[in-house]
Automatic annotation (TrEMBL):
It comes from Cyanistes caeruleus. This is phosphoinositide 5-phosphatase. GO terms for molecular function: inositol bisphosphate phosphatase activity; phosphatidylinositol-3,4,5-trisphosphate 5-phosphatase activity; phosphatidylinositol-4,5-bisphosphate 5-phosphatase activity. Its EC number is 3.1.3.36. SUPFAM superfamilies: DNase I-like.
């Protein structure tokens, strides 16, 4: 029996509520472009509150929006290709991959779910991209859930509704059917019970663990069955909302919003016993795919909006189920920039 070497795919995921601002001059640190760690195979970028005034939105339907162009300009010289994107008003999800992986990615589908104004308005909701990566089904879901401290139930209801959406195609219809599901965005969960002075004092003294217990998402994960299998790294960074623009100072406006970890990245790996019971036997290899979080941080230096961006750097370790590309390309003769070039290709029969 031939053994297949597991693949390690570094994945860098960004979530950022950009507050209708234009892209910043530089995203080197946000995308970890100057780090000595292994080169990232895939960038997943989820933005909320991208400028969606009607004139912007109509021009963005005809052309790529400024944020997509901006990230393409940064990443394409480094060998990345925009694999897919999906936009719903202010919600934007972009995926870039190293071009060497393209032959092993298929079944790409996008979807969006409106939850604003009882499902008629797309200012809140979720946008999703799913794909088969080396034969493994993976889904990415960027959400913007309702604001304000009292709306926890509404946030949970909306997320349940987003989880119920159906992709086209029969093999993996809903987000929870995927082997790995990443859930991220401006989830808008707040810190309950404590007053603003206690919260700010705890932040100043880096006593974050006091605030974790009253974080609405952490509390919901203990009580809501559909959230229990979602994992998250430790919140060892300051709450990412709400800041005065171009500063590291929490809200000094009249509203004086209480700081909160609104911007989050979670993931869920499908339970192998579920897979086994459906198929009637346990897979030979215990873990066909595993997800390891290497780094979960906020980026305080970015000040274009009242939220700070958050990134998660992951290692996806998987046993490739697909190792032959659908199409093989071969150059014909000598190639040079001045002339048209020829390529020979062969495709698998189906």
């Amino acid at each position: 029996m031939s053994t297949v070497t597991p693949r390690n795919s570094p994945l860098h995921l960004v979530t950022w509520n950009v507050g209708t601002a234009s892209p910043p001059p530089d995203v080197t640190s946000l995308l970890q472009l100057n780090s000595v760690s292994p080169t990232t195979d895939m960038y997943v970028i989820g933005l909320q509150e991208v400028n969606s005034k009607i004139t912007n939105f109509l021009s963005d339907l005809a052309f790529d929006d400024p944020w997509s162009i901006f990230f393409m300009t940064v990443l394409s010289p480094l060998g990345y290709i925009k694999l897919s994107s999906v936009r719903m008003q202010g919600l934007l999800l972009l995926i870039f991959v190293k071009h060497v992986h393209l032959p092993f990615i298929r079944d790409i589908h996008t979807h969006y779910t409106r939850t604003g104004l009882y499902g008629y308005w797309g200012n809140k909701g979720g946008v999703s991209i799913r794909m088969s990566l080396f034969g493994h089904m993976i889904c990415f879901m960027n959400c913007h859930l309702p604001a304000h401290i009292e709306n926890t139930e509404q946030r949970l209801d909306d997320f349940e509704k987003i989880l119920e959406m159906q992709f086209e195609g029969e093999n993996v219809p809903s987000p929870l059917d995927h082997e790995v599901l990443f859930w991220f965005g401006d989830l808008n969960f707040r810190i309950a019970d404590y007053g603003i002075h206690f919260v700010r004092e705890s932040i100043n003294n880096k006593r974050f663990s006091l605030l974790w217990e009253k974080d609405q998402l952490n509390m919901a994960k203990k009580n809501e069955p559909f959230l229990k299998e979602f994992k998250e790294g430790p919140l060892q960074f300051k709450p990412t909302y709400k800041f005065d623009l171009y500063s590291e100072v929490y809200d000094t406006s009249e509203k004086k919003r209480k700081p909160a970890w609104t911007d989050r990245i979670l993931w869920k790996v499908k339970n192998l016993s579920e897979v086994a019971s459906k198929e009637g036997e346990f897979p030979e290899e215990e873990n066909l795919i595993s997800v390891t979080l290497n780094n979960y941080v906020s980026h305080m230096s970015y000040g274009i909006s009242d939220h700070k961006p958050v990134t998660g750097t992951f290692k996806l370790e998987m046993k490739p189920l697909v190792s032959d590309p659908l199409v093989t390309l071969n150059p014909e003769g000598e190639w040079s920039a001045e002339h048209d070039v020829l390529i020979r290709y062969s495709a698998v029969p189906d």
